[in-house]
């Protein structure tokens, strides 16, 4: 299963979202995104997922290192993208909560396991 996710920059802050109690990995923090559909490009996927989940448009800036992670019952390849917020009013359509935080503060959240390496790479990344 290939999953894209977006590290969305709002000025100097980054958006993280919390999965709802009803989703898989309940209440874990993640970056908005989702599964790549057949025939869809990675970039089309992340733009579509962010619009569906958050009601905002983004501009994709950079692809970070994909992370392969095996959870007890499924396995994913998580493909992270740095992106800038462009337009739209942020509305949570599926998630329980969100935060806008700097890179250092992001490390403190209770992340989905696959995201931990992404958050660490992000800390080293200079715009
Ligand atoms: N969107 C997103 N998913 C992530 C991240 N990290 C991580 O392990 N995942 C996992 C959680 C999900 O099992 C899968 C993404 O699938 P999805 O969001 O399209 O669908 P889902 O599994 O939430 O849907 P459902 O089966 O709960 O109905 O990847 C992340 O940063 N963003």
Automatic annotation (TrEMBL):
<keyword id="KW-0227">DNA damage</keyword>
<feature type="domain" description="Nudix hydrolase">
    <location>
        <begin position="1"/>
        <end position="124"/>
    </location>
</feature>
<dbReference type="InterPro" id="IPR015797">
    <property type="entry name" value="NUDIX_hydrolase-like_dom_sf"/>
</dbReference>
<comment type="similarity">
    <text>Belongs to the Nudix hydrolase family.</text>
</comment>
<dbReference type="InterPro" id="IPR047127">
    <property type="entry name" value="MutT-like"/>
</dbReference>
<keyword id="KW-0234">DNA repair</keyword>
<dbReference type="Pfam" id="PF00293">
    <property type="entry name" value="NUDIX"/>
</dbReference>
<dbReference type="InterPro" id="IPR000086">
    <property type="entry name" value="NUDIX_hydrolase_dom"/>
</dbReference>
<dbReference type="InterPro" id="IPR020084">
    <property type="entry name" value="NUDIX_hydrolase_CS"/>
</dbReference>
<dbReference type="GO" id="GO:0046872">
    <property type="term" value="F:metal ion binding"/>
</dbReference>
<dbReference type="GO" id="GO:0006260">
    <property type="term" value="P:DNA replication"/>
</dbReference>
<dbReference type="GO" id="GO:0044715">
    <property type="term" value="F:8-oxo-dGDP phosphatase activity"/>
</dbReference>
<dbReference type="GO" id="GO:0035539">
    <property type="term" value="F:8-oxo-7,8-dihydrodeoxyguanosine triphosphate pyrophosphatase activity"/>
</dbReference>
<keyword id="KW-0479">Metal-binding</keyword>
<keyword id="KW-0235">DNA replication</keyword>
<keyword id="KW-0515">Mutator protein</keyword>
<keyword id="KW-0460">Magnesium</keyword>
<dbReference type="GO" id="GO:0008413">
    <property type="term" value="F:8-oxo-7,8-dihydroguanosine triphosphate pyrophosphatase activity"/>
</dbReference>
<protein>
    <recommendedName>
        <fullName>8-oxo-dGTP diphosphatase</fullName>
        <ecNumber>3.6.1.55</ecNumber>
    </recommendedName>
</protein>
<dbReference type="GO" id="GO:0044716">
    <property type="term" value="F:8-oxo-GDP phosphatase activity"/>
</dbReference>
<keyword id="KW-0378">Hydrolase</keyword>
<dbReference type="GO" id="GO:0006281">
    <property type="term" value="P:DNA repair"/>
</dbReference>
């Amino acid at each position: 299963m290939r999953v894209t996710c977006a590290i969305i920059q709002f000025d100097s802050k980054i958006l993280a979202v919390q999965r709802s109690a009803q989703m898989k990995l309940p209440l874990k923090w993640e970056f908005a995104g989702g599964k790549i559909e057949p025939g869809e490009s990675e970039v089309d996927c992340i733009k579509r997922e962010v619009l569906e989940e958050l009601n905002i448009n983004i501009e994709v800036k950079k692809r970070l290192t994909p992370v392969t992670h095996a959870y007890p019952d499924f396995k994913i390849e998580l493909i992270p993208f740095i992106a800038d917020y462009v337009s739209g009013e942020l509305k949570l359509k599926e998630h329980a909560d969100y935060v806008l935080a700097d890179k250092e503060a992001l490390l403190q959240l209770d992340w989905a396991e696959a995201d931990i390496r992404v958050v660490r790479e992000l800390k080293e990344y200079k715009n």
